[in-house]
Design goal:
flat, single chain, mainly alpha, 321 residues
């Protein structure tokens, strides 16, 4: 056996005699793992925070892996719906006027802007503490908006109404997604490096979105009939929601919100009744969390932020009874 090295270091191919009289030589190209390691080491500073993996939480890779995949699927569905909206405002239609297209576009975007402000007013304080729920809800709203935009050209008489509703849903997604991403980046940052974590998350999403855009351009020639358009849209939407569900499910927060507090304290009360001592770990709490928990307190009597007077009165009432 004869090994050939590139630059005196990297193994590139191997020659091996295949007959007993050594008259036949077989050449086999080899992939040098050292080169892959060098390539990966060059890409690490571009897409991963400085000091990885010590500078991020233990769930970082699990979350970013699924989050990147869902971003790719979102790019694909977004391209399909954008194509439908452009057709609806008159692109490719000789009878459509620029003024009519501009008015429709302004009304569509204006509705989204108003919705963005109102949603931030009503729900802004909940997005930080319920990051898992609203991160997933953001993508549900995004897919609803894309679906409405895809339906709009099919019913021209209701095109503007459907386009405005779609823009409204996507705008709410932008607020919820942006705020929850900030909360997740704060959770992932372990070395006072939240800005670096958020920046690298943006780099990952940009790269994956670019790949998704190229894939969308590659499939655009086949987007002619409604059957193939809706089939691809439904498949990509399902994959988008599945990847997003897996992403938020992989998060292990080590802080308490109302739902996690209820889980911890309820288990503590149950353990005390069984004369057991101990608290649930963040991993155990994360396994019991509900992603779509829009009413996190449920029927529990647990009250967060109770004043000392309320606690004292409850204690006196229990003693007197």
């Amino acid at each position: 056996t004869i090994d050939e090295y590139r630059n005196g270091e990297n193994l590139c191919c191997r020659y091996q005699f295949t007959s007993k009289d050594k008259s036949t030589i077989d050449r086999k190209d080899l992939v040098d793992r050292t080169e892959w390691k060098h390539t990966w080491s060059r890409l690490t500073p571009v897409f991963l925070p400085e000091g990885y993996p010590e500078s991020v939480s233990s769930d970082y890779i699990a979350y970013q892996k699924w989050d990147s995949l869902q971003a790719m699927m979102s790019s694909m569905t977004g391209l399909i719906s954008t194509r439908a909206i452009l057709q609806g405002v008159g692109v490719g239609n000789a009878e459509a006027t620029p003024a009519a297209a501009v008015v429709q576009w302004v009304l569509r975007d204006g509705t989204g802007m108003i919705g963005r402000v109102l949603f931030a007013w009503f729900k802004g304080s909940e997005l930080d503490s319920n990051a898992k729920t609203w991160r997933f809800m953001a993508d549900i709203l995004n897919d609803i908006g894309l679906t409405l935009e895809l339906c709009a050209p099919m019913v021209p008489e209701y095109f503007l109404a459907l386009a405005c509703c779609g823009s409204l849903a996507k705008s709410i997604c932008g607020v919820a997604g942006g705020c929850t991403k900030a909360a997740i980046s704060r959770h992932q940052a372990r070395k006072n490096n939240m800005a670096d974590v958020a920046a690298k998350d943006g780099s990952q999403e940009t790269a994956v979105g670019f790949i998704g855009m190229l894939m969308g351009v590659a499939i655009s020639p086949v987007l002619e009939g409604q059957a193939i358009i809706w089939t691809l849209f439904i498949v990509f939407t399902f994959l988008h929601l599945f990847c997003n569900w897996m992403a938020v499910s992989s998060l292990i927060f080590d802080s308490l919100n109302m739902q996690r507090s209820r889980i911890v304290f309820q288990q503590w009360i149950d353990d005390r009744s069984k004369r057991q001592v101990g608290f649930l770990t963040p991993t155990q709490v994360a396994a019991r969390e509900k992603i779509l928990d829009l009413m996190p307190m449920g029927n529990s009597n647990l009250k967060m932020g109770a004043s000392f007077q309320v606690v004292r009165d409850a204690k006196l009432e229990s003693i007197s009874s």
